[in-house]
Amino acid sequence: GGVGFTQYATAAYTDDILDNNIYYDVDYINDKYNGAATIGKDNKVKATLDVVKDIATESTLYGIETYEKFPTALEDHFGGSQRATVLAAAAGVATALATANANAGLSGWYLSMYLHKEAWGRLGFFGYDLQDQCGATNVLSYQGDEGLPDELRGPNYPNYAM
């Protein structure tokens, strides 16, 4: 059991939809944040809570609206698990691209999960609801019991069933 395969297979299985969402996000970021999604490191926007909320929310809402325009894709991405992962992956990638900050990207990922649940009532089935609602509290937390204190992440992160 578990959702490991869903996490593993989603990127390949939903590639065009994920790409479409990220292309939209890149255009949004470049328009609003002066090209922050283009190559380079001096053009990035500072990773603040407002920036994470703005980019992840815009990305997630665009993805939700796109799914609703194409009900076949909405139904094909079973149980909500794949939809939630596609939306969250796009939000996380977009946030990280704009800020060059991996923790901001993770925060965008988890915010997308919350927004998805608010919009559609659930993230998926079985353990998926729990799994992707418990990670946000650990994004910026020091987890010394998992080792690697210099990286502030342990070898078991993100503790998904992969």
Automatic annotation (TrEMBL):
It comes from the Archaea. GO terms for biological process: methanogenesis. Residues 1-123 form the Methyl-coenzyme M reductase alpha subunit C-terminal domain. GO terms for molecular function: coenzyme-B sulfoethylthiotransferase activity. This is Methyl coenzyme M reductase. It comes from uncultured euryarchaeote.
